[in-house]
Specification:
Layout lengths: L1 H21 L15 E18 L8 E4 L1 E12 L4 E5 L2 E10 L6 H4 E18 L6 E14 L20 E14 L4 E11 L18 E15 L1
Protein name: PorT protein
Organism: Croceivirga radicis
Pfam families: OMP_b-brl_2
Length: 232
């Protein structure tokens, strides 16, 4: 049922784009939408977060990551630079879950760590658009972000020996994406896909430098994919 819904949605979206690209004399919706100096909106979407690990020694035992599906919600403030360039601020709330499997343990209690993260994000992006054609306008985005991980447990005195997986609270990174603005009769609807890459090493080592959980980890950085639906 889910696959049929996604396939139907994709076919409808493709048919709409073909009609806008090749249809004769389409009605041009909300022609002045992009002419204002400031625009506002909101977005909803989902994500899949992962970790990229780097190790001190190559011992052939990598940490396994089971990636869950999370959600994102936020607001948009956009400042028009010119016809093709916009500056966007997209503060939002993101929830993600990743289950980590550490090698070398015989019980799930020791081997598995659930990492549930709630991020408050502050991305600042540049949006580079093509010329609008009928009621669609493709674009790419790029920029940086800072985020606060409310579930980081950075200040906890317990570590993995007590079942507590700790991460840094403040995270910085960059993101790249693309999408397409669709101008409907009453508002602008925008589906987009974005890759997110943290620059911060988020792991907090255990108190024991030879910890079987963190002793061999040089760095652990978030990476992920967003699928957002924007309404302006």
């Amino acid at each position: 049922m889910k696959k049929q819904f996604l396939l139907s949605s994709f076919l409808l979206f493709t048919a709409f784009c073909q009609a806008q690209l090749f249809g004769k004399d389409p009605i041009i919706n909300i022609q002045n939408e992009d002419k204002a100096f400031l625009n506002y909106g909101y977005y909803l979407g989902f994500n899949q977060y992962d970790f990229k690990f780097e190790y001190k020694n190559d011992i052939g035992q990598d940490v396994l990551v089971n990636k869950g599906i999370g959600f994102n919600v936020g607001l948009i403030g956009e400042m028009r630079i010119n016809e093709f360039v916009d500056l966007r601020f997209e503060p939002g709330l993101l929830y993600a879950q990743r289950d980590l499997g550490f090698p070398g343990f015989t019980t799930a209690q020791d081997a598995i760590r659930e990492v549930r993260s709630t991020y408050i994000r502050f991305p600042l992006l540049v949006k580079l658009s093509t010329k609008r054609y009928n009621n669609i306008k493709p674009f790419v985005t790029a920029g940086g972000y800072s985020a606060i991980n409310l579930g980081a447990k950075e200040d906890s005195l317990d570590d993995n020996s007590s079942g507590e997986f700790r991460m840094k609270k403040n995270v910085y990174g960059y993101e790249l994406g693309f999408g397409i603005d669709i101008y409907t009769e009453f508002f602008k609807f925008t589906p987009s896909i974005r890759g997110v890459f943290a620059l911060t090493n988020e792991i907090i080592p255990d108190n024991n430098p030879n910890s079987p959980w963190t002793g061999n980890i040089e760095s652990m950085k978030t990476r992920g994919i967003f699928v957002n639906f924007t309404f302006e």
